[in-house]
Specification:
This protein has about 210 residues and is mainly alpha-helical. The chain has one domain: Protein of unknown function DUF5063 (Four Helix Bundle (Hemerythrin (Met), subunit A)), CATH 1.20.120. Helix content is about 60%, strand content about 5%. The protein is built from 6 helices and 2 strands, in the order H-H-H-E-E-H-H-H. It has helices at about 25-50, 60-80, 100-110, 130-150, 155-190, 195-205; strands at about 115-120, 125-130. The protein has a two-stranded antiparallel sheet. The longest helix is centred in the last third of the chain and has 36 residues, at about 155-190. The chain starts with about 25 loop residues before the first helix and ends with a helix. About 30% of the residues are buried.
Length: about 210
Amino acid sequence: MPDIPDPSTPDPTPTVPAPLLAVVPDELAELAETTAGEARAFLEVVTEVATGRMDETALSVLLLAVSQTLVTGARLGAVADVVPTRRFEPDAGPDPDVDPVRAGLANVMEGLDDYADVVDPLTNAKLVRGALSDDLASVAADLVHGLRHYERGDTTEALWWWQFSYLSSWGLRATAALRVVQSLLGHLRLDVDSETVADAEFDALNSL
């Protein structure tokens, strides 16, 4: 009979992190296609919101768009590192200017744009100013940069960029933006005075 290890004795075997998901070339092509589609969808949403034409639906649409983009980013973060064949990033041409979108979002979110953020929840909990418009524009800039490579047919370079920038920048900014949008919606829907709630309940009961 094998010896039963004493649970009070530390296991000398070091903990090895679970390996990242390995993907084959066909799966990489599918991942790139999916990411490109989600990137385009996100860009369309933030551009439309920045026009100011969406009124009270803007936060709900942003909640869906940012959440879906983070699902796409999670797929990128879960797979093994994509390594491009070249040691330099090829020039994909100038990226579209996202500053007008940033300014439009800031105008739409006036009075709600600024929030308190932390530099890094693990290494530096110092509070700093955050801005929802900056976050959304930053995500858009990173996504559109990868999209330029993808549209030139450079799938590996596009995936490398999307994956790298997800882990280093746009994933963090999208996560912050999602929390802010979710918080805004929560306050708008839940911070209601009791008289308003009572009137709504009365109207609902009398409509049955």
